Amino acid sequence: MDFATVSPSSDADPFSRGFFADPFPTHAALRDAGPVVRLSRYGIWAVARYDEVYRVLNDWETFSSARGVGLSDFAKEKPWRLPSLVLETDPPFHDRTRKVLNRVLSPAAMKTLREKFAAAADALVDALLERESFDAVPELSEAFPLAVFPDAIGMPPGDRHNLLPYGNMVFNSFGPRNDLFNDAVRDAAPVMAWVQLQSQRDQLSDDGFGAQIHAAVATGELTAGEAPMVVRSLLTAGVDTTVSGLGAALFCLARFPEQFQILRENPGLARAAFEEAVRFETPVQTFFRTTTRPVEIGGVHLDEGEKVLMFLGAANRDPRKWDLPEEYDIARKTVGHVGFGFGVHACVGQLLARLEGEVVLQALARKVARLEIVGAPRRRFNNTLRGLESLPLKLHKVH
Fold first, then answer.
1. Mean pLDDT taken over the chain
2. 288: which of 37, 67, 320, 394 lies 20 to 30 Å off by Cα?
3. What is the mean pLDDT of residues 211-231?
4. Are 242 and 278 contacting, i.e. CB atoms less than 8 angstroms apart?
5. Which of 239, 258, 255 is nearest to 170 (CA)?
6. How confident is the model at residue 1 (pLDDT cuts 50, 70, 90)?
7. Which is nearest to 386 in space by CA: 279, 288, 285, 309?
8. Three-state secondary-structure class, residue 387
9. pLDDT digits (tens, 9 = 90+) for 300-317
10. 398 and 364 in contact (C-beta within 8 Å)?
């Protein structure tokens, strides 16, 4: 029997504005359709259940990242940009770059940053408490990572806002060449040139992550040409995902005030509150893999060279895995969520994102009595990321 002829099929468009506005009904339909579903609009396969997403993430030998983690197949077409030496390579080559980044972004390295990051979070929350109201996206969830992350890299102070459009370009490039992609890359050249410049050793301080990555040239772990590309990969991954994660946490804690009260009573739950927001909203919604050999998923045969779209957001709300997945619960045991990926290609900056999320939420828990949404939130549409464009917020002081 040709399994492919009887596999479930869907005409859903996971790169449409309607889907981005409310992806959850489509997620549920794809999960219910079967372990793997053919997306007829794009001629690709999709997995939306937790078990299958987890399997694909953890089997790099069968489901490769080296042919692109977007819709484009690098074996068949030229990439829009130079592929990432971290995200879009497989072992053994991937192990070289990953080893360097794992050392630079180690738990011990995070400990050295905690005090400085916490002080910056306290200062920002104090300043926002003095305001009647503000937009929490540009003034908190974007402002905080743009303040602390480039310092940790060792970047010079100017033009850091360029990191946002750069990340928007890269994450839009993982989808089709639609309006979102075209709008993102229309003025790409100066931003791309700026990022390339920031990745060079002579632009970076001596005490940041960037200098540590370049130091791997002297040890033979990286070549002189590879080091700036690895710094660039860190710049790509280090801002937008954290911005979306912080925005998700703020949005959740404002919409579910009982959860914020639990956090106020126990600020030690700040890490858990951020982690649950990443599960609940899943800032990185989708990634692709490409099959390296014929493989069977749920009784359906996939040939070599097939694109497989993983719905990370759908997996993180799969009732087959989670109890009451539609509820935001900061006491939930979130171990195993795929919001930061899994396996050899799991998010290399996840410890940094978690640290930033934790110190911001701890500051809010200590200093704020209530988060109030005072205007209509607006979504920011992106082919890969789920985040907010605007979140009008008021912080009520603790009396």
1. 95
2. 320
3. 96
4. no
5. 239
6. very low
7. 285
8. strand
9. 999 999 999 999 999 999
10. no
| 312 close to 69: Cβ distance less than 8 angstroms | no
DSSP 78: -
CB within 8 Å of 296: residues ≥ 6 apart? 3, 302
Q: CA nearest 353: which of 253, 282, 275?
A: 275
- The secondary structure element, H or E, covering residue 119 is helix 107-129
Q: Are 209 and 112 in contact (CB under 8 A)?
A: no
Query: In terms of Cα–Cα distance, which of 185, 117, 121 is closest to 150?
Result: 117
Angle between helices 143-153 and 107-129 (to 10 degrees): 150
Confidence check: pLDDT of 176 > 70: yes
Please give the angle made by the CA atoms of 108, 252 and 116, to the nearest 5 degrees. 30
Query: Among residues 64, 102, 66, which one has the least CA distance to residue 85?
Result: 66
pLDDT in tens, 267-284: 999 999 999 999 999 999
Q: Residue 169 forms beta bridges with which residues? A: none
Domains of the chain: 3-397 (1.10.630.10)
Provide the pLDDT confidence category of residue 80 given band limits of 50, 70 and 90. confident
- Backbone φ and ψ for 291, nearest 5 degrees, come out as -70, 140
- At CA 360, angle to CA 231 and CA 316, rounded to 5? 75
Longest CA pairwise span in the chain (Å): 70
Nearest to 64 by CA among 256, 304, 316: 304
The pair of three-digit structure tokens given for residue 362, joined into one six-digit string: 């701890």
* pTM of the entire predicted model: 0.96
